[in-house]
Amino acid sequence: MSLPVVKRDEKGIPTLYVHDKPFFMRSGEIHNSSASDPVFLEEKLWPALQGLNMNSVIVPLYWELIEPEEGKYDFSLLETLITSARREELKLCFLWFGLWKNAESMYVPAWVKKDTVTYFRAEKVNGEKMTTISPLCAAAVEKDRLAFTAVMRRIRELDEEENTVVVMQVENEIGLLGTDRDYSAAAQKAFFAPIPEKLSAALGKSGTWEEAFGEDAGEAFMAWHFASAVETIAASGKKEYDLPCYANAWLRQSPWFPGSYPSGGPVERVQPIWRAAAPSLFAFGPDIYVPYCADVMDSFASDENPLFIPEIRKDAVASSYALYAFGAKNAICFSPFGIEDLALDPSQLDKPPMDLMIALNIDPSAFDITGSKDCLAATYDLLGQLEPLYLQYRGTKHLQACVRHGETDYSAFLRFADYDLVVKYGPRMSGKPLGCLWVLELSEDKFLLVGLNSTPEFHVKPGVNQKLDILRLEEGRVVNGAWIPGRVLNGDEKMSLRFGDMPSALMVELQRF
Ligand code: DGJ
Predict the structure, then answer these.
(1) How many folded domains does the chain comprise?
(2) Ligand 1, closest atom to CA 310?
(3) Whole-angstrom Cα distance, residue 243 to residue 206?
(4) Residue 308 in domain
(5) Atom of ligand 1 nearest to the CA of 248
(6) What beta strand segments (E) does 177-261 contain?
(7) Is the distance from CB of 189 to CB of 259 less than 8 angstroms?
(8) Is the CB of 337 under 6 A from ligand 1?
(9) pLDDT tens, residue by residue, 419-442
(10) Are residues 401 and 379 part of one domain?
C-alpha cells in the first residue's frame, strides 16, 4: 500500500490519496494550545469534536515541547495524539510550529530563544531586533531541520502502516510583520547581491533584488529566504518519511502593504517565488478570516495550487463555504479554526479579545459560533454521503456549485446542456449560512440539488420555444451516493424550489413541451 500522497486523479485533479483512495478532508483546526496537555485532550478536546462528522483534524506539534533540551526529543505528546486520533477515527494533519508561527519565533525552544547570537533575529531598518529569527540564520534553520526530521522519523516508526497522519504543514503563517524585509547584517549582504540563479532561471529575471523586483523587492527577497528555509526543513523531513507537505498563508489584505501582513509568506503574488524555492510543497493554503472567503478561494485555487484550507472562519457561513470549496474548487481540505469551540453554547463562549483580533487582522464575526455546529455537522455528513457521486461528477460540467460572494452578489447563473439555472441567494444574516448550491446534472432532465439559503429556478435555453414544467419533485437524503426519496413535493410545496438554514437535497425531474 502506498503512503498518503497528493497526485492527479484520472481526470487530472490534484487529490489526496490515503491507502490508495481519494480522501477529502472534512476537517477542523484546533486552537493553538489545545494539543499541549494530554489531560486537556482527553477531557475537553476529543469530546468537543464528537458529532461534527469530521474525518480529520488539524493539530499543532510544538518544537519547544518536543526538544526542550538540545538534541533530546520528547515524542510523548505526538504518540498520544496519534493513538487517540485513531481511537476517535480521525486522520491527522500536523502543524509543525517550529521556527515560525504567525510571523514570530514563539514556539522555538528556550535554548534557541535565549541564544540570540547564534540564532540571530531579523531586524527592522532602524536596527531594532524582532521576535522573529531571521530566515537567513542557517544555524537556526539547521536546528529546525533536525527536529522536524526527527519528528518525521518518529511518525514513520509509529504510523507507516496505519497512515493516521496524512499531511504535514511546515511552520505557520510565515513572514515578517512591521517591516517589508529583514535588515540584519546577513540580510543586507544578500539583498544587494544578484538574485540566486535558480530564481533567475525560474522567473526569467536578473540583477539585484531591486533590479529584478523593483518596489516589491523586499517582499520577494523575504519570500525567497523563507521558502528556501522551509524547503531545507521539508525536504529533509520528507526524506525520512514522505508525507505531503504544504505551507499556509496569512492573507494579503487591507491595508495591503508588505509588513501589514507577514512579508514573505506564500500569498498569491509571491507564490511563483515560493514554487521555485520550495518544490517539496504541494500547496500554499489560505487562512481565511475576511468576509470575502469565496474570492480568496477563487484566487488561491489553481491547477498548480490545489485548494487546501487549513483555517477558515467558523461562523455559520462556514458550511456554505465548505460546499463551495469541494463543489466548485476541488478542495483537498476544508477546516474551520478553533473547531472545538463549536461544542460550546454560543453564550458560553468568551468573545475573542479585541486586541488579538486587531493584531491578527481578523474580522471578529469570524469567531461567532451562533448556528454553526449543527449546520456544519449536517454539511460534513452530506458531503460524505455525496462522495460516490462527487467522485463521478467532479471535474465535469455536470457538477456545478456556487456561493454568494459578497453583499451585492444576489444570484448565480449556471448553464447546463438543456437548461439554465438561476440561483437566487437569500439575504445574508448573522448566525445563518450564506446562499449556496450544488447542482448535479444526472441526465438531460434530472437534477440533484443540494444547498443552503437559496432558491433555484430552472429555465429553458434562450431561443428554445418550449415551456418548462416540473414532472416530479422529491425531497430526500443521499446515503452513500444513493438517493433515498422522502416526501413527493407537489401542490403548495412545488411552487418554488427552496433551501433553508440546514443543508438539504432535492431531486428534480423536468419536462419541456
Ligand atoms: C491564524 C493562525 O495561523 C492560527 O494559529 C491562529 O493564531 C489564528 N490565526 C487566530 O486565532
Answers:
(1) 2
(2) 3
(3) 34
(4) yes
(5) 3
(6) 245-250
(7) no
(8) yes
(9) 999 999 999 998 999 999 999 999
(10) no
